[in-house]
Structure formats: structure tokens, C-alpha cells
Design a protein that fits this description.
Order of helices and strands: HHHHHEEHHHHH
Number of domains: 2
Largest sheet: 2 strands, antiparallel
CATH architecture of the largest domain: Orthogonal Bundle
Mean pLDDT: 85
Distance between the termini: 28 Å
CATH superfamily of the largest domain: Winged helix-like DNA-binding domain superfamily/Winged helix DNA-binding domain
Number of helices: 10
CATH class of the largest domain: Mainly Alpha
Length: 192
């Protein structure tokens, strides 16, 4: 999941939904939420002293929670331009990954990777054959082939046939693909 789509998700919601599966206790949970709250208020470096001012937990409880979160690699402390900072980016990355895994099965994730690989192969071959970047219409048409589960071999062979015929156009390639798919269907093979 890229950072743009991840930022659209509500961090607090995800944290409350998944904290138990991440082996986070309620004290650690509230410390993470408070760090997030303070970071949103432009506080870069959050110490136990700042947390003590805002929370009902004891100094020892806050210390234990922060140490545990640091050891679990859910929070980190760093120096940016010589200034100390506290970050919850590690837990955010983990939560977004968990969320992605919860909505997509392993098979769906594998299919998505396979589709992306197929798309890259087809687009690279088209651009290489055409000797230029594809137009938006050509991209859209090629995406349709991929989304309609046209076999990669049929697409690549149709592009090759188009080049051999000196008829390099997306429309001609599309006709060749349809023709090959009909031929496969008539020979008893299933069309994907």
C-alpha cells in the first residue's frame, strides 16, 4: 500500500482494531495515541515528562510502555537536523500492512502481483515495438486486455503479428487478439 492511500486511512481506528493482534496492551495503546496526538500538535520530541502532563498513568507505567514499544520497534527516536524527534511511523507501516492483509487474501495479493507483472511486460513490449511511449488510448485498450484476462501469449503474439504485417496500431492488435481468442474458443479451449 503506497503512502498516499495509507494516509487516507484513520490511524486511530486501525490501531484500536489491531492492537491486540500486535501484542500491545492498553497502557501502550494509550501512550501511542497520546504520542500521535502530540505529534499532530507539532511536538517533535515527546518524552515521558510531556506524557505525564497529559495522562493519568504513573511515571513508571509510562516508562515501561515507552520502553516496551521501542523494543517492539513500534516507536523510534531519532535526530533530524540535530533535533531529537519521536516517531510512530514504524507502527503506522505495520498497521497499514495488517489492514491490507486483512482485506486481501494471499491469493488476491498474488493475483495482483501477477497482473502488475503482466501489465509491465505487455506495456514494455508495446512501447518497444511501437518505438515510443503509449498514448492514453493505447494504455486504456491494453489495460482492457489485461483486465479481461486475455492471456499474455495471445497479446504478445498479436503485437508481433501486427509488427510483421507493418500494421502497428492498437486497433489492429485488438482485432488480432479477438480473432485468436475466437480461434481458441472454436478449437475447444476455454477463453479466459
Amino acid at each position: 500500500m503506497n503512502s498516499n492511500s495509507a494516509s487516507a486511512l484513520n490511524f486511530s481506528y486501525l490501531l484500536l482494531d489491531f492492537y491486540k493482534t500486535l501484542n500491545i496492551n492498553e497502557q501502550e495503546l494509550v501512550v501511542i495515541l497520546m504520542i500521535d496526538h502530540l505529534r499532530k500538535q507539532e511536538n517533535e520530541f515527546i518524552t515521558k515528562d510531556e506524557l505525564l502532563l497529559k495522562m493519568n498513568l504513573s511515571e513508571k507505567e509510562i516508562d515501561q510502555a515507552m520502553t516496551s514499544l521501542y523494543k517492539k520497534k513500534y516507536i523510534e527516536f531519532s535526530f533530524d537536523l540535530g533535533k531529537p524527534s519521536t516517531s510512530i511511523k514504524p507502527i503506522k507501516k505495520i498497521l497499514y500492512k495488517k489492514f491490507e492483509q486483512s482485506i486481501f487474501t494471499e491469493e488476491e495479493i498474488a493475483n495482483k502481483k501477477e497482473t502488475l507483472q503482466k501489465r509491465e511486460t505487455v506495456f514494455d513490449f508495446l512501447e518497444k515495438t511501437f518505438g515510443r511511449q503509449l498514448t492514453p488510448i493505447e494504455i486504456s485498450r491494453a489495460d482492457e486486455w489485461i483486465n479481461n484476462d486475455v492471456e499474455e501469449d495471445i497479446i504478445i503474439n498479436s503485437i508481433k503479428d501486427s509488427a510483421l504485417s507493418n500494421r502497428l496500431s492498437i486497433t489492429y492488435i485488438d482485432r488480432l487478439i479477438i480473432k485468436k481468442m475466437k480461434k481458441e474458443d472454436n478449437s475447444g479451449n476455454a477463453i479466459k
